[in-house]
UniProtKB/TrEMBL annotation:
Belongs to the translin family. This is Translin-associated protein X. GO terms for biological process: cell differentiation; spermatogenesis. InterPro entries: Translin_C (IPR016069), Translin_fam (IPR002848), Translin_N (IPR016068), Translin_sf (IPR036081). It is found in: Cytoplasm, Perinuclear region; Golgi apparatus; Nucleus. Ring-shaped heterooctamer of six TSN and two TSNAX subunits. Interacts with GOLGA3, TSNAXIP1, SUN1 and AKAP9. Interacts with the homodimeric form of C1D following gamma-radiation. Interacts with TSN and C1D in a mutually exclusive manner. Acts in combination with TSN as an endonuclease involved in the activation of the RNA-induced silencing complex (RISC). Possible role in spermatogenesis. GO terms for molecular function: metal ion binding; sequence-specific DNA binding. GO terms for cellular component: Golgi apparatus; nucleus; perinuclear region of cytoplasm. It comes from the Eukaryota. Keywords: Cytoplasm, Developmental protein, Differentiation, DNA-binding, Golgi apparatus, Isopeptide bond, Magnesium, Metal-binding, Nucleus, Spermatogenesis, Ubl conjugation. Its main location: cytoplasm. It comes from Seriola dumerili.
Amino acid sequence: MKKKNPQFFCLVSGEGCPRKNADTGQDRDASTNPSSPVIAAFKVFQQELDTKHDKYERLVKISRDVTIESKRTIFLLHRVTSVPDPEDVLNEADVKLDGVRQKIGQIAEELRGEDIHQFHRAFTPGIQEYVEAISFLHYIRHRSLISLEEINARLVFMRAEKVGAMGAAEALPLGAQVLTFHVTPSDYLLGVADLTGELMRMCISSVGNGDIDTPFQLSQFLRQIHDGFSYIGNTGPYEVSKKLHTLRQSLGKVEDACYTLRVRGSEIPKHMLADVFSSRTTLIDPEEGVV
């Protein structure tokens, strides 16, 4: 009987091969040794990613709260066309928007020392809804469009911060820190584009309440917004070009209402104007743009 070649047996089974066993032991030690520099580096990466993901989720939750409260403010502002004292509604809307700004202050705290573009997708829906709400309130009061600078001027927050810790038993002095949140131009444009839909609804409800002056004011204002977006063209953000079609639809409905008021306003009773406009808006071709 032929004897087994020990070198061949070592290559096949790995047994009796001291060098290979030693290498395998070193690999096992490198994979389980907590002091290994590779393991230490990946633990740092894991901590950084977990911290980033947790912050992202917190920003998503805050943005959701901002969106909900901003929508409630918009629904409240639509009551100005049907209440005897609109100023009460506007004051209540101011209180709600103050609460929304406090939520945005929490976003500013989360973004302290961070790159805003890494987390922009987490909070942009809420910021757009806030821009829509505050611009709607500003238009009702001043009949003009609020600027980006005016919006950012209201997003300055004072936060108390402990400074110079000397001991747990000693009182820590408090230092005031100023936090600012800057709405990006793209979020501002997207919020203004959504505003046009609310102005179109305000036009229809105003006519239903017998107000025939507001539709003509809204028509002129929406035409100016449309002209401004036309200057941007395809050079702006992709989302702006998508919402431009909706803006044109809103402008078309308001202009159609103004046309009906001008041509047939004397023929239709005021209490029936809203029903006439509601039926006419369904007949507008959704693919037809405003030239």
